[in-house]
Amino acid sequence: MKSMQILETIDFVLKEYRYIIIDEAQDFNKDIIKLIYDKAVENNIKLVVFYDKNQLIFQNDLPDVTRCCGKNKK
User: Fold this and answer.
1) What distance in Å separates the CA atoms of residue 44 and residue 60, rounded to the nearest whole number?
2) Helices (H), the chain
3) Dihedral sign, Cα of residue 69, residue 16, residue 23, residue 74
4) What is the pLDDT of residues 32-59, one digit of tens each?
5) In sequence order, what are the residues at sequence separation of 6 or more whose Cβ sits closer than 8 angstroms to the Cβ of residue 56?
6) What is the CA radius of gyration of the chain?
7) For residues 69 and 63, what is the distance between their CA atoms, to the nearest angstrom?
């Protein structure tokens, strides 16, 4: 998926849903997770991320979500 398609998809999802669940996040690039997180925060969307460091198929360097996105203070 190209960058513009990713942004368009994220914007569509944010307009349609109040909650976003990402499953198998270990298969995502950490920059994409961060982008989705930042956009969710901007739009007051709840985000839940599931991943298993033991299943790194693509060997992505996905850090702990708290280190990637920060800690939600709410």
Assistant:
1) 28
2) 3-16, 30-42, 65-69
3) positive
4) 888 888 888 888 989 888 887 777 666 5
5) 26, 62
6) 12
7) 9
Whole-number pLDDT of residue 49: 85
Block residue for tokens 């950490």? 30
Q: For residue 16, what pLDDT is reported?
A: 87
Say what the alpha-carbon torsion angle 18, 19, 20, 23 is, to the nearest 10 degrees: -160
Which among 34, 33, 35, 24 is positioned nearest to 58, based on CA atoms?
24
The neighbour count for residue 37, using CB atoms within 10 Å, is 20
Tokens for 5, please give them. 């398609």
Q: For 4-8, 16-20, 42-46, 61-65, which range has the lowest pLDDT when averaged over its residues?
A: 61-65
